[in-house]
Structures are given as C-alpha cells and as structure tokens.
Fold these 2 entries.
Entry 1:
Amino acid sequence: MTTTQSSIRLSDMRFYAYHGVMEQERQVGGEYLVTVSVDTDFSQAMESDDVADTVNYATLYDVVAREMRQPSQLLEHVAGRIAKSVLKAFPTVDSVSVSITKCTPPMGADCRGASVELRCKR
C-alpha cells in the first residue's frame, strides 16, 4: 500500500479569547472556533502504533491554545502566528491550514460568525 496523502485535523476547538479591533472586544472577549489541519506523513505510525511517529494532537492543541491566549487585533494575525508556531513545533509537517471563526462579530449582522482561513506550506 502506498500512502498518497495523510493529515491530522483538530476541528472546532472552542476558545474564549480577546481578539478584535475594537477596545471592547479586547476587554470583554468572545468565543472563537479554530480548526487546524496538518499534512504530514504518518505512514510509519500506521505500522508502529507509536505516538512518537506522528504529530501528537494533544501537543498540536497546546500550540494553538498558546497562540489563542495572546490578544491580537486581527484574526489574520492570529492565524499567521498559529501556522508559524505549528511549522516550528512539528518539523515533519509539510503544510498547515488554520481556520478561525469569531462567533459573535460586532457588526450588527445576523450570521454564525466571521472567519479567516489560511493555508501555508513549509
């Protein structure tokens, strides 16, 4: 068997964070959903059954959580920090996708949220 693509995804991680252009957003905070997907060859882990041979998703979560705790004005900035931190923490990751949704954006619109999405290659 030949593996053509493999990825690990953490979907809709929930965070309460303090991102936003408006001062009130940075004081009161809000709910965010973050999805991160990494492309990495985990064919060795398929055989070994050893977490050391793959991207540990608990550690991946910790990387995302650390960046979400740091306030920023723009979600684009947060997404960029997450992508850089993931690539730094996991040398076997070839590419990373980050999606961040602000669940209640302060813009007077009836919507489920405002999102940014970023895809980066090493």
Entry 2:
Amino acid sequence: MQLIDTHVHLNFDLFQPDLEDVRSRWLSSGVVRLVHSCVEPSEFSTIQAIANRFPEISFAVGLHPLDAHKWDQETADKILHLAGSDPKVVAIGEMGLDFHKADNIQQQMMVFEAQLAIAESLDLPVIIHCRDAARELREVLQKWRLLKGERVRGVMHCWGGDPEETQWFLDLGFYISFSGTVTFKNAKQIHSSAAMVSSDRLLIETDCPFLAPVPKRGERRNEPAYVRYVAEQVARLRGETLEAIASSTTENACKLFGLTL
C-alpha cells in the first residue's frame, strides 16, 4: 500500500535533530512521495536542500496569506525563478486568503491573484490555504475563470469547510485535501465534507508539524508517517477500505502534481 502526504513542513527546526529517523518512519508507513509546502521566501533554500536530500520529496514555492505584507517584486521574481528552474517544484503555494488572523483583505487578494498569474504562466497547480475566507476566495477564482476562460488547477489544503463550501470548490475543479483535523471527534463539518468528496478529487496530508491526528494528538509534533491515520479516518467516514483510499489519493496526487512512483 502506497500513500502520498501532499502537504508537509519539514524545514522546521524541531525536525532537524532526527530527520533521518522521521524519514525511516514515513517509509515504513508506506509514504512513497511527499509535497513540501512553502510559507515565505526565506525558506526557499532550506526546502530545496531537503528536496535534494530525499528523492521522494517534491516541493512548492509561494507566499502564505499571513505573510502578504512581505510581497514585492523581488519576492515575485524569486517565486517565478525557482519554480521555473527546479524540476522538483510541482506547485505554487501555499497561498490563498486568511481572514481569521489578519484583516489586510485587499493586500491578501492582490498577492493571491499575483501568484495565480505565476502559476498560470508556468502551468503549475496551486496549493491554497483558506481560513474564514471561502466566499471571497471562491469569488476570486470565479472571476479568474471568467477572465481567463479556464479553471485554476489546485488543491484546497487542510480543508475545514462545510459541505456547501466544499461543493463550491469541487465545482471549480479543485481537489480537496484532509489533514489530522478530520480525526478530531468534534470536527463534524469536516467529517461531512470528507464523506461527500468524489474519489477522484480526494487528497490526504499531515500539514506537519501541526495538527497531529488521533491517536497521536497532543504530541509535540506531527510527522508524515501519521498520514496513515488520516487515511484510516477518511476510509471510515466514507465506508471504504484503507487500501481504496490509499489507491485513490495516491493516484490523485500523482495526477495533480505530476508525480511518478
């Protein structure tokens, strides 16, 4: 059985003392590919080094919406250059809108659209972070589709929306990725969303080191090996086997990000 963790942050300091051991555990758990996300440009070189160190890791480059104030032409140029020059870059992100922790709405929207343009110019998918901003994000994507005449390719990562919001992004052609939050007992709307996504649009992730899933919740860090617990819970919610979820999510990740096994 093969699993793909489509969203990790292994560049964090708390992974550095034992990253080889962390890798041994993800390999032992059947994790065959990983997509390393990026929050802001200062991470670029570290993430690139990790991807070069481990052949199963691909990565994305982008600017997180909570770092939108850091956007300038230099940042745009860095994203465009690295994404266009390194074959291990498979997406732009993580990017998007977050109105839960910041209220610079117009700035976030501008940075989001600028990164959509970069992704389009390179024919790369996007990894979208969306918190308390589903309606506004949907409007941007609808406008983009109207102006460009085509859909943006990508994934709603660590998805926490309700079924109505989930359907919005499915209708726009997006994949929906579930993290450890889907294992939380009281995450009822996430449970409902995980049950309704069609098998060909479903992805799984850890978003490590954050959001460790049950039964590892409460540990000081999450890690890629734990994506198996996400897959197991999604299987339970959907009435499917673990093997079926592993197969469909792996196939979907390969299709979206152009990965090979």
